[in-house]
Design a protein that fits this description.
The chain is of the alpha+beta class. The chain has one domain: Metal Binding Protein, Guanine Nucleotide Exchange Factor, Chain A (Beta Complex), CATH 2.170.150.20. Helices cover 12% and strands 30% of the residues. The strands form two sheets. A six-stranded antiparallel β-sheet has the order 3-4-8-7-6-5. It has a three-stranded antiparallel β-sheet with strand order 2-1-9, with no helix packed on it. Strand 6 and strand 7 form a beta hairpin. It starts with 7 loop residues before the first helix and ends with a strand.
Amino acid sequence: MPKIAKSAAEWRAQLSPDEYHITREKGTERAFTGQYWDCHDDGTYRCRCCGAPLFRARDKFESGCGWPSFHTPLAAGQIDEHADNSFGMRRTEVTCHDCGAHLGHVFPDGPAPSGSRYCINSASLKLEKDAKS
């Protein structure tokens, strides 16, 4: 499937100013302020920009960091990883494979089964609740 490509103007028309800053300009929302950091609903977390399925609610855990945290992506290849050495730190940025939206970062301090903590901005996600929720 080809990558989704839109102009900055097209993304700005689709997203709120905060969503645009976070997903298209690699911004970060403040801890404990995002819509999903304390959400416990069942469903699928999708990319805010293109709707690609990224994470299942069952793979979310309480990390205490103030952002939604997941131990495993929904499907292999749906999330891309990139070295991020900004702000004098060494981190791994995660982006949506389909549209390149900045999601957050992944750290090697998560629970089993993966040992990873995908620390994701709420503004990068849209929860599609399961019918029973």
